[in-house]
Amino acid sequence: MQYKHLPHIDMIGYYQFITFRTFDSTDVFLKKLSLQDKDNSKKQLEMDDYLDSSQNGAYLKDDVLTVISDFLKAKDKVLYELIAFTIMPNHIHLLIKPLDKLASVMQSIKGSSAKTINDMMSRRGKFWASDYYDKTIRDEKHFNTVYNYIKNNPLKLGEAEASLPRFYGIYE
Fold first, then answer.
1. Residue 142 has what pLDDT?
2. Which residues of 55-83 are buried (b: 16+ CB within 10 A; e: fewer)?
3. H helices within the chain, ranges in order?
């Protein structure tokens, strides 16, 4: 049996793989994808592949890249135990162990960073899309697979972009 449209799993103390994206990265393709009758894992993979090649909402660069990186590191041991993240031009992958309910963690990350980034960019309106994808890590193999995916994701951007400080991991 395939499960579709599953609720977020708020399991404090369990590792979570999270993907969230900028509001302006949403376009016709992603809207159609969200309506398709596929399980969430397949949707997340298709969304990641699409976002990796899309320039829609690609605000996570230059000074914004530094600000969001510093912000995510500053919340380590406050909102979560930070294992790894990759900041792509229009989305972020996190591997964390939440110290609070996941919804509260994500609200804090998105709300605080959106205000700061919007002020930096002299823009108004939504910065982050309201949704996010989460997957509870099942075992050590899954943990390692996710960690390596996050670590290697910037390589899809090409050498110049991949050399920027887009990845952080506690094992590096």
1. 96
2. ebbebbeeebbeebbeebeebeeebbebb
3. 28-35, 40-53, 62-74, 102-121, 140-152, 159-162
Question: Which amino acid belongs to residue 61?
Answer: K
pLDDT at 2: 45
Residue 11 belongs to some domain of the structure: no
The answer to whether the beta carbons of residues 43 and 34 sit under 8 Å apart is yes
Structural domain count of the chain: 1
Amino acid at 44: Q
Q: How many CA atoms lie within 13 A of 116 on its CB side?
A: 17
Mean pLDDT computed over every residue of the chain: 84
CATH number, residue 141: 3.30.70.1290
Residue 75: pLDDT above 60?
A: yes
